[in-house]
Amino acid sequence: MTVSQTHATDRHYRVAAPARGSVVGRAEIAALTSVLEGASSLSAASRREAFEAELTALIGCRHALTVTSGTVALEIAIRLLDLEAGDEVVVTPQTFQATAQPLLESPATVRFCDIDPVTLNLDPDALADVITHRTRAVILVHYGGRPAEMPAITALAHAHGALVIEDCAHALGASTPAGAPGSLGDIGCFSFHSSKNITTLGEGGLITLADDTLAHRVRRIRDNRIDIRLSDAARSAAFTELRPWLIYADELDTGVSEIRRSGTNATLSEAACAVGLAQLERLGQMIARREAIVDRLDAVVSAVPGFTTQTTTPGDRSAHHLYTAFCELGADARHQVLADLDRAGIQVQLRYAPLHLTPEWQLRGHRRGECPVAERDWFERHLNLPCQPTLSDDQVDILATELDRALRSASSRHA
Fold first, then answer.
1. Structural domain containing residue 310
2. Are residues 189 and 270 located together in one domain of the fold?
3. What's the average model confidence in pLDDT over 194-217?
4. How many domains does the chain have?
5. Mean pLDDT value of segment 248-257
C-alpha cells in the first residue's frame, strides 16, 4: 500500500484502514503456481489436509476443519446447536453482524450480554445476569485479538449446560496460559478474510472443535452430505453390485432415524489452502509488526490527558487485529478527534456499532439501554486506528504524528 490510498468514497487517505490485513508476496505466488501446475484436485486434497494439520497444532485443538468463510463457520456452528423454540442464546453486542446473523432465522431467543469497558470482550459478571437454564450457547468474540475471560465464561456456561462458541475472527496468533483462542471453548470459528491476520485468497474460514461427534457432523455438512442420525436398521443389499463404483457407498444402504439439516458445499479450495500454508509461515512476523505499531500508538495515547489505551490480561498475548484507544472526555471530544484525523488523511473505521441496535435486531425487540457499557463505549469513547503490517514506516510516522496532534487539541479544548 502506498502512502496515498483511495477510499471507497474517493477520498484520498495518507494512512488507510486495511484493505489487506496481511502481507502477500512471492511465497503465496509460488504456492499458487505449484497448485495450478500440479495434477491433483483443485477442490480438496493434500494441501487442505496439511493446512488443517498446521492449524490444529498452532491452535492446540482436537479438530480444525476449513470452510469457505468465517460467516459459514458461524452458520455451521449454530446449526450444531439444534435450537428449538424456548431455547436461548447469549451473544456479545460488540461484534460484526455475522456473529449473530444466523440466529435471525432461529426460533431461539437471543439475549445480548454487555461487555467489559476496556477489553470490549463479553463481561463474565454481566453474563451471570443474563444466562438462564434455557441458555443453549454463549457466543463471544475475542475483540481485536485480545482473548476473552474464558475460564470464568466457560465455567458459568457449562454450569448451565450451555456450549461456548468462540468467534476467533480477530484472534489467530493470540494466546493465553490455558491455550489459544479456538481451543478454550467448545466450538471456535475463524475468518481468513482479506482483512484478517492471514488470508486464504480473500475468503476462507475454520471451525475448531473438541467433540468428535460434532466434528463428524461438521465434516458431513461442509462436504455436501446430510447431517443425519443413523438408526439400527438392517443394511439392504440394493447397492451391493455397484458399491465399488459409488461415492459415499458406505451409507447408501444404512438406516436413518433423523435428518437434522441438509449439507452444503463449504469446501475450501486447494489454492486457498496453499496460500494459507504460506501465510502461516509469516504469521509470527506479521503479528510482531502489529505489536510494534501498537506500542508506538500506545505511547502517543498514554502521553495525553483524557485518553487511555486497552490492556491485556497478564500472561495473555493479543493478536492485535485491531487497535483501539479510548477518549475519556466525552462524545464531543471523541468526535473532534475523528474529524481532525480525517482531515489529516488518517482513515478511521469504528468497529462495531452495538449489534442489538441494528435494524434487524431492533425489529426483534432489542432497544437502547440493553447493553449500556457497549453503547457508551461505542458512541462516546472508541478510537480505532490502522495497525496492519502492510503499513510502511513512513505511514506509521504520519499516523503517530497526526494522532498526537489530534489528541492534544481535543485534550486542551475539552479537559
1. 283-414
2. yes
3. 97
4. 3
5. 71
pLDDT of 5 reads 40
Cα–Cα distances (Å) from 400 to 45, 136, 295, 339, in that order, read 46, 45, 11, 16
> What's the CATH number where 363 sits?
3.90.1150.10
Strand 135-141 and strand 163-167: pairing? Answer: parallel
Eight-class DSSP state of 13: E
168/276 Cα distance (integer angstroms): 16
Same structural domain, 164 and 111: yes
Of 109, 113, 120, residue with least CA distance to 142 = 120
- Is residue 2 domain-resident? no
Let me know if residue 16 belongs to a domain. Answer: no
* Whether 253 and 138 share a structural domain: no
Residues 37 and 156 occupy one common structural domain: yes
d(CA 35, CA 273): 10
- Three cell numbers at 294? 501498537
* 207, containing H or E segment: strand 205-209
Grid cell 482436537 is found at 62
Tally Cβ neighbours within 10 Å of residue 335: 14
Cβ distance 47 to 270 under 8 Å? yes
Is-above-0.90 flag for pTM?
yes
Which grid coordinates belong to 320?
492485535
Which of 41-45, 101-105, 294-298, 393-397 is least confident? Answer: 41-45
